[in-house]
Each structure stands twice: as structure tokens, then as C-alpha cells.
Amino acid sequence: MESVASLVKVSLPKYLQGLPIPSSLGGFASLSGQDWLALVPFVGTVSLLVYVTVRAFTPPAKPKDVPVNMKIQKESAKVVNMVDIEDLGDKISYCRCWRSKKFPLCDGSHNKHNEETGDNVGPLVLQRKEAAK
Ligand code: FES
């Protein structure tokens, strides 16, 4: 702890007093190459501190919206599937994740998608009341 106190109370003020910082903006024009080199660590450290502080108080960039449908019938302006209600049977699962290889039916691909992305999508399951019992 004593070394930190010595650094803050003795070494740092001594270092800062030794920096060739001119008293006016015009004074920067008269600095030598060696003076500029002496300022590099100070300017770099201050820049880093400012950057870290600004980043800490700046909200992260909002991710851009990505398409839900990554590969199914991309040549179509709109993907529409028609199903005759008489063909539904007792139970059928329709994909809502757009990753099924049997689209529009669910093939379980949502499980892999959920594992990889942290998402929680699942199928739309249509089931007759009598079949659920
Ligand atoms: S595969 Fe897409 S919801 Fe199951």
C-alpha cells in the first residue's frame, strides 16, 4: 500500500511536472521531437482512460435485425403454405423456426437452433381434442 501511496503522491506528480506541456496552444508548435516523444505515453494513457470511461457509459450497439427465414424459398416474395384442413390428421407440428428441412412441417431442427443461439422457438402443434385424451 505504501508503494501505491508513493506512486500517487511522489512519482506521478514528479512525472507530470516533468512533461513538456506548453502553457498555451501555440506553444505546441515550438515543441521539439523529443518533447513530443515524452508526451506519447501521457497522451496514450489519458486517451485510453477516456476511451474506457466513455465505453463504460455508452450502451452497446443494438444488433441489426436479421431475416427469420435464412434459406426456405428465398426466390419467392412471400412464403405461403396452404394445407387442406381435411389432411391434418390427429396431430401435426408446423415449423416456426424456419430451419426445418421438411418446412412447413417441424423436423426438430429448432432444438439445434435453440442450442446454438439461446433462442426458445418451437413448433405449432395442431391436435384434435379426441387424440389428446
Ligand atoms: S424445426 Fe422449426 S419449429 Fe421445429
From TrEMBL:
Cofactor(s), by name: [2Fe-2S] cluster
The UniProt entry, under InterPro entries, shows:
CISD1/2, FeS-contain_CDGSH-typ, FeS-contain_mitoNEET_N, MitoNEET_CISD
Q: Kindly list the GO molecular function terms attached to this UniProt entry.
A: 2 iron, 2 sulfur cluster binding; metal ion binding
UniProt GO BP: regulation of autophagy
Residue intervals passing through the bilayer: 36-54
Keyword flag Transmembrane: yes
**Which key words are in the record?**
2Fe-2S, Endoplasmic reticulum, Iron, Iron-sulfur, Membrane, Metal-binding, Transmembrane, Transmembrane helix
Its protein name is CDGSH iron-sulfur domain-containing protein 2 homologue
